[in-house]
Amino acid sequence: MGNDVLEMAKTAAVATLARRAEDAKILDLRAIGGFTDFFVISSGNSNRQVEGISEKVIEDVEEKWNQRPWHREGPRKGDWILLDYVDFVVHIFLHEKRKAYDLERLWSEALEIELPAINPNLIEDDYELDDDPDDFELDDFIFDEAFEIKID
Prior knowledge:
Number of strands: 8
Structural class: alpha+beta
Shape: globular
Distance between the termini: 51 Å
Oligomer: single chain
């Protein structure tokens, strides 16, 4: 089972990279005696990207391993999403939140697992990072006579 769990964690890590996550890492917690075997940690540049990364992880792990997270936290705020697969946990942070919690320092005794190489064709080129709904300004909208809003 241990190798399958590591391979599932690698699948999750590759999924984060496919959605252009930054500074992705897998930490091996088995020797430390933690509550889980592995952490997959990555960062995104916007709330929308963090959410998109989490969706890709869920999709790819379910497709390849027929597993769904046992528990999920944080999708409403989008600054830190946690996907708990019991034997491994995926953390997807906004950069500032990742610095604040600094899991790598807290679990500094953990070994870092080398990430698998990702085929550049798997990186989603059409995935928009700049289209965060929180970033819209009034100039981005057009109002018609009935005051119905249309996005410019």
